[in-house]
Design a protein that fits this description.
The structure is a single chain. The protein is of the alpha/beta class and 282 residues long. It has two domains: 16-166, 3-Layer(aba) Sandwich (Rossmann fold), CATH 3.40.50.2300; 174-281, LytTr DNA-binding domain (OB fold (Dihydrolipoamide Acetyltransferase, E2P)). It has helices spanning 2-32, 43-56, 69-79, 95-100, 117-126, 137-148, 152-167, 218-225, 267-281; strands at 34-39, 60-66, 83-87, 89-90, 93-94, 108-113, 130-132, 175-179, 184-188, 192-198, 201-206, 211-214, 230-234, 237-240, 244-248, 254-257, 262-264. It has a five-stranded parallel sheet, sandwiched between helices. The protein has a five-stranded antiparallel sheet with strand order 12-11-10-14-13. Strand 6 (108-113), helix 5 and strand 7 form a beta-alpha-beta unit. The protein is elongated.
Length: 282
């Protein structure tokens, strides 16, 4: 009889021990997850994102959703999230309006938007992640992973850059975030002299002769900077037109920048470049 009681006791003790260990690991797992809020004024978008997060983002713990700026502010203050999936345009304002009401920001943001060229370009300059509607699950997963590894102070620098660029009407005074392996550089667009392709990387040369190598293609920067006074003179070079000193016709043609750096001009770009010179002169 005594042995039976001891056997039952030890079994119960073993089960209790197993449950305790599982509870500890569950709590640790929850602590490592990103507490996340979804804010979007379209119910079907919120529902779709909830399903995607549940299925494709094991590192996310969804704590709440909201449908607009005012409800979003209340929800964020209540739940103190690590990450917010934030719609840009909502019925009672914008995602930017929401963020202004919560400064200083102590969480990270992935913007969600229908195609809005102006907003997207500003977001790209700040290197903040965004998702286009309809949201692609792979892009959601990639954005969450990148954001998870981002230090909060670095994200706030990117967010400040975004805010400044949205308020600035002077394209030359806009700022751009350049991410390298171990640094985040905040650079005025005006201070970029030219960009050179280095395979799948781009070397960005500044007016102070500093060189920054980033893991984006020259095509990416051509698309980003072409509306701010930059011109792709060659498949390997993108120049800031503000810093051109002269055009030399020798050896096929070179643009000479103010620091006497020579940049080759492709033959198919030569006529277009000379037309731009004439417009600037006129």
């Amino acid at each position: 009889m005594l042995w039976n009681l001891l056997f039952v006791f030890w079994n119960l003790l073993f089960v209790f021990w197993i449950l305790t260990i599982m509870s500890i690991f569950t709590k640790k797992s929850d602590l490592n997850m990103l507490r996340t809020i979804i804010i979007d004024d379209e119910a079907h978008i919120r529902q779709t994102l909830e399903k995607m997060v549940s299925r494709f983002c094991p590192n996310i713990k969804l704590v709440a959703t909201a449908e607009g700026v005012e409800s979003g502010v209340k929800t964020i203050r209540k739940y103190h999230p690590d990450l917010v999936l934030l719609d840009i345009k909502m019925n009672d304002g914008t995602g930017f309006d929401l963020l202004k009401k919560l400064e200083p920001i102590d969480f990270k943001v992935i913007f969600i938007t229908a195609y809005d060229q102006y907003a997207i370009k500003a977001i790209k300059f700040s290197a903040i992640d965004y998702l286009l509607k309809p949201v692609d699950p792979d892009e959601l997963y990639d954005a969450v992973c990148k954001t998870e590894n981002l230090v909060q102070i670095d994200f706030n620098t990117q967010l400040d850059t975004l805010t400044e660029n949205l308020q600035s009407e002077d394209k030359a005074n806009k700022k751009i975030i350049l991410k390298t392996f171990d640094n985040i550089h905040l650079i005025k667009v005006y201070d970029i002299n030219y960009c050179e392709s280095e395979g799948s990387y781009t070397a960005i040369y500044l007016l102070n002769d500093k060189k920054i190598i980033v893991s984006n293609t020259l095509k990416d920067y051509d698309e980003l900077l072409k509306d701010t006074g930059f011109f792709r003179v060659h498949k390997s070079y993108l120049i800031n037109m503000r810093h051109i000193d002269r055009f030399e016709k020798t050896e096929g043609g070179y643009v000479v920048l103010e620091n006497e750096c020579k940049v080759p001009v492709a033959s198919r770009k030569r006529e277009q470049l000379l037309e731009m010179f004439e417009r600037l002169a006129g």
